[in-house]
Amino acid sequence: MAQAKDTVDLPSFKLKDDGHKSLHDWKELKKIIGNNDLALLERKPSDVIRYNEWTSKIEATYGSINNFVCQERLHWTPLPGSSPESGPVFAHVSPVPFANQDDYKILRNDWPYGLTPDITHLVVWLKNRIHVNEHNGDLTAGSRERIEDFVQVVFTDRLARDGDGNDRVLWFKNWTALQSVRGLEHVHILIRNAPEDLLEEWTEGRLAY
Fold first, then answer.
1. Residue spans of the chain under pLDDT 50
2. Distance between CA atoms of 126 and 63, rounded to whole angstroms?
3. SS3 of 17, please?
4. Is pTM, for the whole model, over 0.70?
5. In Å, how far are 31, 38, 81, 115, 119 from 26, measured between CA atoms?
6. From CA 132, how far away is CA 135, in angstroms rounded?
7. CA count, 13 A, side-chain hemisphere, 90
């Protein structure tokens, strides 16, 4: 996820020489995320082509992908002091990430990773920033713990109330060098065998674009 331009969150689109990439299954995702090897996530070339075509249309209409996400997906208005350098800055209820439901929104990823059909890709978008290490942009220990607690309560425990939440939720946050959306804070959530009614509950019925 190079820094070149802001986009709806996407993998780095590394392509195989034969032009084909098999879909990531749960076992592989657990290994990639567990090792923090997020650059290994890939997409099929045909999906890259579709994304590039979509990007051109969106940028022609909205000026940037960030503008599109703010206006059409999140319906959040950046503060007047926002700049290209800072990215969109939003008023928020709590300075603590995930502490107030008005400060985050859960959406289906418009351009999910190449995953097997049993896996759903959600994104938690936040109005406030998550602390990262300055030298590499990776999460601090405190930020990782805060995200883990949020994911446990909102996703894993919720799945458990309706059945079994064991080994059904993965999460990650791309470190800065891999981010395709810089300035719009977000965390990726992957859910295995997610019931549609819970997906609607988490996303408040919002569909992918």
1. 1-8, 10-13, 15-17, 19
2. 22
3. coil
4. yes
5. 9, 14, 42, 8, 8
6. 9
7. 22
